[in-house]
Design a protein that fits this description.
Elements (H helix, E strand, L loop, with lengths): L2 H93 L3 H15 L4 E6 L1 H5 L5 H10 L4 E8 L5 E6 L2 E6 H7 L1 H13 L1
Helix pairs in contact: 1-6, 2-4
């Protein structure tokens, strides 16, 4: 081999060695980049998974809270229906009382609502036709205790039980429907206490 061939061979050997080193360094760098990408994508995947679990947990909590609210609403609705039914039945039973007891209730209502002045009591046509013999006397006694007087009017009204008291053109609605409506909230609270506490 000539001197020139040796020099060329050395240059080629050096170039080949340098190229090998460059390829080796490039392969190491590529492996490092690949490893870094794997780690980064693994961290991103873990972050996505963690965020997904948190979101799923929040959705589950909201769903449970919503289900619990709906359950409480259904229970409340059922309780309210039971209370309304019970109060309605009590109202019906009042109208079905035996005659003497029924008119005793009307006297109690009149005693509570009577004023210290002259007035009249209006009844339903049905009640007017079945007034007990001593009712007028008892009504006068009840009104007299408050310094007034009450007589049974010839006028009748379509009432579902109870009466209307009239004092100088001013009417006091003491029908059972009006009394139950006026006391609806208090009765609801009382029935609720009895049934559900």
């Amino acid at each position: 081999m000539t001197g020139l061939e040796k020099i060329v061979q050395e240059i080629l050997d050096e170039a080949e060695s340098a190229a090998g080193q460059t390829v080796s360094a490039a392969e190491k760098e590529a492996a490092g980049i690949e490893e870094e990408a794997r780690k980064s994508s693994g961290q991103q995947a873990e972050e996505i998974l963690r965020a997904s679990k948190e979101a799923a947990g929040e959705i589950l909590k909201r769903a449970q809270s919503s289900a619990e609210l709906k359950k409480r609403q259904k229970i409340l609705q059922a309780k309210q229906e039971m209370i309304r039914d019970l109060i309605g039945k009590a109202r019906e039973e009042l109208s079905k009382l035996p005659e003497e007891s029924y008119f005793d209730v009307i006297l109690k209502v009149a005693a509570k609502a009577s004023l210290p002045q002259k007035g009249e009591m209006i009844l339903s046509p049905e009640d007017r036709s079945r007034v007990p013999a001593n009712f007028s006397t008892r009504l006068a006694e009840v009104a007299g205790k408050k310094g007034g007087s009450l007589t049974i009017s010839e006028e009748t009204r379509n009432l579902n039980g109870g009466c209307i008291l009239i004092y100088g053109g001013v009417e006091e609605n003491c029908s059972f429907d009006a009394l139950f409506e006026a006391e609806r909230e208090r009765l609801t609270d009382r029935v609720n206490e009895l049934l559900f506490r």
